[in-house]
Write a structure and sequence with these properties.
Shape: rod-shaped
Oligomer: single chain
Largest sheet: none
Order of helices and strands: H
Structural class: mainly alpha
Number of strands: 0
Strand content: under 5%
Length: 43
């Protein structure tokens, strides 16, 4: 059963990383990211 837990953790970690990267990419367009450090938000 530990193998299933490890696989689940890997999948969850991968999804979290993917979501973070996706939100970083789309945050200037959507303004959904809580990070206002990106100065590309001009439009």
């Amino acid at each position: 059963m530990n193998l299933d837990e490890d696989e689940g953790k890997r999948i969850i970690t991968f999804i979290v990383v993917a979501v973070i990267i996706f939100s970083l990419i789309t945050s200037p367009a959507e303004g959904d990211g809580g990070d206002d450090n990106i100065p590309i938000i001009v439009n």
